[in-house]
Amino acid sequence: VPVIQLRNIEKIYQTKTIETVALSQVNLSIGRGEFVSVMGPSGCGKSTLLSLMGLLDEPSGGTIEIDGRPVASYSDKGLAGLRNHKIGFVFQSYHLINDLSVLDNVELPLLYRKGVGNTERRRRALAALDKVGLNARTGHFPAQLSGGQRQRVAIARALAGDPEIILADEPTGNLDSVMGEEIMDLLLGLNRDQGTTLVMVTHDEQQALKTQRLIRFFDGRQVA
Ligand code: ADP
Ligand code: ADP
Predict the structure, then answer these.
(1) What is the DSSP string of 117-173?
(2) From the centroid of its chain, how far is CA 200?
(3) d(CA 80, CA 46)
(4) Which end of the chain is less enclosed by CB atoms within 10 A, N or C?
(5) Which atom of ligand 2 is found nearest the CA of 137?
(6) What is the per-residue pLDDT for 11?
(7) What is residue 114's predicted lDDT score, i.e. its pLDDT?
(8) What pLDDT is attached to residue 35?
């Protein structure tokens, strides 16, 4: 059973005056432990695809299944649980909170998790920071870090929740090639060593070639 399955997905954004077809007839399955990259020109629907896979938004048509179960069959509470426990997000612009320390940023997604107390939360955050090689920076603030380090904090924050799936939207888009490569190596390592399923949007062909499968989009459709 694929971990994520999209069947005949349509996504239409409707504003007062314009209707935009962001995705059309998308059929896609992501296997457990796969590392898939997604490429395509600006505006072709890549971010929309990730937000649907991450259950942040609903399709206008078609069905999404997680572990073989249609997302529409979950209650709101069940859906929130799925979103928080199963899926981690990494963004191009890191989305860190500037007046929180590195450690506090990484603890954030565990703050409201049932059954995770202060000590356990800290333990998991430190373990996640260790995985990204930032255990010497726990007391720093985001402004004191390089771009590559900030992205590593964002990856640690995603890892703290122990997700099965990481969805990364141009995770190296703001980084120079050296730091970009470091981040790519980190993601490849997570996939290889702990079996994390990864879906990554990228503009970098070289990076995409390092993943197991490359899906190309054009104008809301999967073209290759
Ligand atoms: P990409 O990530 O490939 O650049 P997006 O998924 O962001 O593409 O956008 C796909 C299309 O949907 C674009 O035409 C974009 O303008 C439109 N779009 C994205 N988000 C919204 C929104 N919230 N409201 C209206 N249109 C949107
Ligand atoms: P890079 O060249 O990789 O972008 P920087 O030159 O920004 O890295 O930073 C080099 C090192 O100095 C990093 O390890 C970072 O943590 C530290 N650093 C950068 N700015 C500050 C600061 N304002 N306060 C404390 N440490 C900082």
Answers:
(1) -HHHHHHHHHHHHHHTT-TT-TT--GGGS-HHHHHHHHHHHHHHT--SEEEEESTTT
(2) 7
(3) 23
(4) C
(5) 16
(6) 98
(7) 84
(8) 98
Per-residue model confidence (pLDDT) at position 84: 87
199 pairs with which residues across the strands?
Answer: 36, 167
User: Is 24 a pocket residue for ligand 1 (Cβ < 6 Å)?
Assistant: no
Instruction: Report which protein residue has its CA nearest ligand 2's atom 4.
Output: 146
In Å, how far from its chain's centre is CA 130?
A: 20
For ligand 1, the distance from its centroid to the CA atom of residue 40, given in whole angstroms, is 13
Tell me the C-alpha to C-alpha distance, in Å, between residue 56 and each of 139, 157, 169, 172, 180: 31, 18, 14, 22, 26
Distance 162 CA to ligand 2 centre (A): 28
Q: Which residue has the tokens 């993943």?
A: 211
Atom of ligand 2 nearest to the CA of 143: 23
Which ligand minimizes its atom distance to the CA of 179?
Answer: 2
Q: If you measure from the C-alpha of residue 6 to the centroid of ligand 2, how many angstroms do you get, rounded to a whole number?
A: 42
Determine the distance separating the centroid of ligand 1 and the alpha carbon of 63, expressed in angstroms: 20
User: 11, 52 in Cβ contact below 8 A?
Assistant: yes
pLDDT at 113: 87
Place of tokens 């191009």: 92
ipTM of the modeled complex: 0.71
Binding pocket residue ranges, ligand 2, CB within 6 Å? 144-149
Tokens encoding 150: 């900030």
Whether the predicted model's global pTM rises above the 0.90 cut: no
